[in-house]
Design brief:
The protein has two domains: about 140 residues, Roll (Pnp Oxidase, Chain A), CATH 2.30.110.10; about 45 residues, Rubrerythrin, domain 2 (Single Sheet). The chain has about 200 residues and is mainly beta. A seven-stranded antiparallel beta sheet has the order 2-1-5-8-9-4-3. It has a three-stranded antiparallel beta sheet with strand order 11-10-12, with no helix packed on it. The relative contact order is 0.17. Helix content is about 15%, strand content about 35%. The protein has three helices and twelve strands. It binds flavin mononucleotide. Flavin mononucleotide (FMN) binds next to β2, β4, α1 and α2.
Length: about 200
């Protein structure tokens, strides 16, 4: 039997990193100093639009997701690009210095970027906490909770008796016997080949 990688036993949380123009789900947030205020790092893939936007901005926020997070939040912020859609469109949010911050979380920190480190596929952005706001005392979600419950969290609801075409990128559902050849997902912009019949 193939042993699972030890990296699977490195516990981490679930967060949204947001900056002006982009936001995405991350599980790679760490407190890396005990200075007052502390430094926090977040590792963001170079292919993500949020990485490009972080390099253009001096500030970002980190929101902490709770165990009660809605599947829609993970689908929207973790499986779409801010390049294609406004991820905050269907959610309540605040705006701080042009940075959109989701309300339905445990709270958020505002950080100023002090360093950016190149780590092959990702950049580590190091920020100094300049402010923080707590909304509630819900229990934080772990990445391992997400792994255990992701089938339920990412489940797509379909209406019975109808043929549904599900966008494998963002979860949008189109109802109809056939999907037109030139169909483009109204939510994330991908073409017909990204849809699965259900
Ligand atoms: C559970 C989960 C954890 C993730 N962790 C990270 C992460 O630590 N770093 C990262 O760059 N992307 C991570 N992602 C992927 C991004 O959220 C995803 O690629 C997103 O669509 C990027 O959006 P953007 O193009 O708007 O930046 C994670 C996604 C999920 C669902």
């Amino acid at each position: 039997m193939k042993e699972k990688s030890l990296t699977r036993d490195i516990l981490s949380g679930m967060f949204i990193v947001s900056t002006k123009g982009s936001a995405c789900i991350v599980d790679t947030v760490l407190q890396v100093s005990s200075s007052k205020p502390p430094l926090i790092s977040v590792s963001v893939n170079k292919n993500n639009y949020t990485n490009q936007m972080l390099k253009k901005n001096s500030k970002f926020t980190i929101s902490i997701l709770s165990k009660n997070v809605k599947g829609e939040v993970i689908k929207t912020f973790g499986f779409n690009s801010s390049k294609d859609i406004d991820k905050f469109k269907d959610f309540d949010y605040l705006e701080i210095d042009g940075i959109k911050v989701l309300k339905d979380t445990i709270g958020y920190m505002i950080l100023e970027i002090v360093d950016i480190i190149d780590v092959e596929t990702h950049n580590i952005f190091i920020g100094r906490v300049v402010d923080e706001v707590r909304f509630n005392n819900e229990e934080a979600m772990l990445y391992q909770d997400y792994q255990l419950h992701k089938d339920e969290l990412l489940k797509v609801e379909t209406e019975s008796g109808k043929t549904a075409w599900i966008c494998t990128v963002c979860g949008y559902v189109y109802y109809g016997d056939t999907l037109p050849d030139d169909f483009v997902c109204p939510k994330c912009g991908v073409g017909k080949s990204a849809f699965e019949k259900k």
